[in-house]
């Protein structure tokens, strides 16, 4: 009996040791100090509910995340769970690097609470949930009421022409500019919105797979944005600005207008009085329509994870009602859960601008062609380099449109050939 007890105790101790040695790696790619601290707090709850399991959080700076994560993967440093931007999903899912979450969703009690859009977008590749979106990023226009009043602009602009005129008037003020241009990482959204709005359509491709980027309407939108910069209606150094810089440019009072998702509201609301700024629909083009981009990000499990059941438990903690609301309240995304609409936080005044966009039939949310494997490189590398060349005058708007159209046509036609 003593020998049996000893053996049992030894087995128990060995089991405990193995459990204590279980470490999950979680990669965060849309990184900020507030996001990381919030992620740590949710992960701490997971660790408490799963004794012996630790989560190592690897936070990559967003401006370099695409290249850094690709380097990690090529070196075999593959996490268990990662924060997956919509623009990367196709690349990693189509290369067999992501685990299907369908078996887990079929048994999860929270699945029914996921919005239809969350499930639809999470299943964007092969109708399989390779990602669970945690929330949505819908563009709207922030405007500085004080700057507009000082420049003699009585109301926020409704059309592209009014926007350009208001930007001109504000830029005439000493040290002030109309628009916080995002010329660096993440800047593609602005080019797409203004291009589609001038074109009157957010169709990226013709039926034969050729890109619309070099069509007359899209070229007008590209030229419009380049002219805005060349005319001095955006700060000169905004050619390199990313998310943090454009948000700081707005709350510091440098720029009167900022197009951004709800995540910008966190930093702005901390530094500006609610009565000093507003949020409204993006300006409309000649067709009377506007095409604000809608993006999303979520949680994915890597196929090479050695701890898939635990990795799912971590995703379920992050995506469940408590984790999802906590995360989105701090990151600013519109939640992926239906039940979030009952939360008083989202009924507040600050979110009315985005709900106004959703309710406007002439504001058509635009989803990027993220199903293309080549899109991640296009968005995070090629588009940045070439658009900066156009802003500097090294290439013409027509040459920029042609470069984009050539790249995207090849990607789309390759995709169509595989179908």
Explain how this protein is built.
By secondary structure, the protein is α/β, with parallel strands linked by helices. The chain has two domains: 22-138 and 295-355, D-Maltodextrin-Binding Protein, domain 2 (3-Layer(aba) Sandwich); 140-291 and 372-418, D-Maltodextrin-Binding Protein, domain 2 (3-Layer(aba) Sandwich), CATH 3.40.190. 48% of the residues lie in helices and 13% in strands. It contains 17 helices and ten strands. The strands form two sheets. Strands 2-1-3-9-4-10 form a six-stranded mixed β-sheet, with helices on both faces. Strands 6-7-5-8 form a four-stranded mixed β-sheet. Strand 1 (22-28), helix 2 and strand 2 form a beta-alpha-beta unit. Helix 9 packs across helix 10 (216-230). It is globular, with a radius of gyration of 23 Å. 45% of the residues are buried. Residues 1-19 have low confidence and may be disordered.
Topology of helices and strands:
Layout: H1 2-20, E1 22-28, H2 33-49, E2 53-59, H3 62-74, E3 81-85, H4 86-93, H5 102-105, H6 116-122, E4 132-138, E5 140-144, H7 145-150, H8 160-171, E6 177-179, H9 188-199, H10 216-230, H11 243-251, E7 255-260, H12 264-271, E8 277-280, E9 294-301, H13 308-319, H14 321-331, E10 334-335, H15 352-359, H16 375-392, H17 397-418
Parallel strand pairs: 1-2, 1-3, 6-7
Antiparallel strand pairs: 3-9, 4-9, 4-10, 5-7, 5-8
């Amino acid at each position: 009996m003593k020998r049996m007890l000893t053996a049992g105790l030894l087995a128990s101790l060995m089991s405990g040791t193995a459990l204590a040695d279980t470490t999950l790696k979680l990669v965060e790619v849309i990184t900020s100090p507030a996001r990381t601290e919030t992620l740590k707090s949710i992960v701490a709850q997971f660790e408490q509910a799963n004794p012996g399991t630790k989560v190592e959080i690897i936070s990559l700076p967003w401006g370099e995340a695409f290249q850094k994560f690709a380097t990690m993967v090529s070196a075999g440093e593959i996490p268990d769970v990662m924060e997956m931007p919509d623009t990367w999903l196709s690349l990693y899912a189509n290369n067999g690097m992501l685990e299907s979450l369908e078996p887990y969703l079929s048994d999860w009690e929270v699945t029914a609470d996921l919005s239809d859009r969350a499930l639809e977008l999470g299943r964007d590749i092969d109708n399989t949930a390779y990602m669970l979106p945690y929330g949505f990023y819908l563009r709207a226009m922030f405007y500085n009421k004080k700057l507009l009043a000082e420049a003699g602009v009585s109301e926020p602009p409704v059309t592209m022409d009014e926007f350009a005129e208001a930007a001109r008037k504000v830029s005439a003020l000493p040290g002030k500019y109309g628009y916080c241009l995002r010329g660096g990482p993440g800047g593609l959204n602005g080019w797409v919105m203004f291009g589609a709005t001038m074109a009157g359509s957010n169709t990226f491709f013709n039926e034969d797979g050729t890109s619309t980027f070099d069509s007359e309407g899209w070229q007008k939108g590209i030229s419009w944005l380049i002219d805005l910069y060349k005319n001095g209606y955006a700060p000169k150094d905004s050619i390199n600005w990313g998310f943090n810089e454009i948000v700081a440019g707005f709350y510091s009072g440098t720029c009167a207008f900022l197009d951004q998702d709800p995540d910008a509201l966190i930093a702005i609301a901390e530094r500006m009085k609610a009565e000093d700024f507003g949020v409204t629909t993006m300006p409309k083009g000649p067709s009377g329509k506007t095409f604000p981009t809608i993006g999303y990000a979520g949680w994915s499990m890597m196929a090479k994870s050695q701890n898939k059941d635990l990795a799912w438990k971590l995703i379920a903690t992050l995506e469940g009602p408590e984790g999802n609301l906590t995360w989105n309240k701090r990151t600013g995304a519109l939640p992926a859960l239906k039940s979030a609409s009952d939360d008083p936080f989202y009924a507040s005044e600050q979110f009315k601008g985005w709900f106004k966009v959703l309710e406007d039939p002439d504001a058509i949310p635009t989803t990027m062609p993220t199903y293309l494997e080549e899109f991640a490189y296009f968005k995070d590398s090629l588009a940045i380099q070439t658009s900066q060349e156009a802003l500097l005058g090294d290439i013409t708007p027509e040459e920029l449109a042609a470069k984009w159209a050539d790249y995207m046509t090849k990607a789309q036609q390759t995709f169509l050939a595989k179908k």
